[in-house]
Write a structure and sequence with these properties.
258 residues; alpha/beta; Rossmann fold; seven-stranded mixed beta sheet; two-stranded antiparallel ribbon; 16% strand; Methyltransf_11
């Protein structure tokens, strides 16, 4: 069984420590949610694995959420159902219980990707939609010039897309998901045109990569980016991103169908 923290988190991050205030920065982005909705098709019963605080859970279907972190379960809004305390690798659910399944920004936290996806497939009759990042595309983000350590950490943590597609089996489609400039889901690349936001400690805390770099890296990042914003260096290099309606970053939706 996957090792779990005092909070119950089963991945490599203790959300009991960093998850507080998470929902202030991580809200579901409707334009990203539309991709997930399309992938779920006509499914009426949906399993959400690694559900966190409930981002991207459809409101027009019967959703069963699974989340091992007590801190994240506690932040689920009252209009969503409570989440089951369990991990992806050990789902306490019957075979073929659901029409579809989803997993958003979570597979990089799983202790055993293949076992987790096998469990999700065991309990799911139809499509499985996984929102994740392509580690090969993370260096497109300007953060790589300021904190390459954070990008390198993410590239190591996110599973390569072929590993996901192989573990899913069946017919798999990998769909690039453009990131809108005013994205309300504050994962790192969401701030591609709003660099000032990443100077906020809360914004960085809501991105688990910063949990894996030394404090001196974050201090250097804040100091360097702050100076470059003040003297115009960042805008001379990347100012065009402030008006770019979308960013072609690392975000991908992987959809597996039998």
């Amino acid at each position: 069984m996957a090792e779990r923290t005092n909070d119950g988190s089963a991945g490599d991050v203790d959300y009991g420590r960093i998850g507080l205030g998470y929902t202030r920065y991580r809200q579901p982005e409707p334009r990203i949610a539309a991709f997930i909705t399309a992938a779920l098709g006509e499914a009426r019963t949906v399993l959400n694995v690694g559900a966190g605080a409930g981002s991207y859970e459809p409101l027009d279907r019967e959703v069963t959420a699974v989340e091992p972190s007590a801190a994240m379960r506690a932040q689920r809004p009252t209009h969503l159902p409570g989440a089951i305390d369990a991990t992806a690798e050990h789902l306490p659910l019957a075979d073929q219980s659901f029409d579809a399944a989803m997993a958003t920004f979570t597979v990089h936290q799983w202790q055993n990707l293949a076992a987790g996806l096998a469990e999700v497939r065991r309990v799911t009759r139809g499509p499985i939609a996984i929102l994740s990042c392509d580690p090969e595309a993370l260096d497109r983000f300007w953060l790589n010039d300021y904190a390459p350590e954070a990008i390198a950490v993410e590239a190591r943590r996110y599973p390569p897309l072929p590993r996901i597609t192989e573990a899913l089996g069946g017919k798999v489609e990998v769909i690039p998901v453009p990131i809108p400039r005013d994205c309300v889901d504050g994962f790192g690349e969401a701030y591609y045109g709003r660099p000032e936001r990443l100077l906020e400690p809360g914004a960085r805390l809501a991105n688990s990569a910063w949990n894996f770099v030394a404090p001196v890296v974050a201090e250097r990042f804040v100091a360097t980016l702050g100076c470059d914003l003040t003297d115009g260096t960042w805008d001379r290099r990347y100012g065009h991103l402030r008006s770019a309606p979308e960013f072609d970053g690392s975000l991908r939706l992987i959809v597996g169908r039998l």
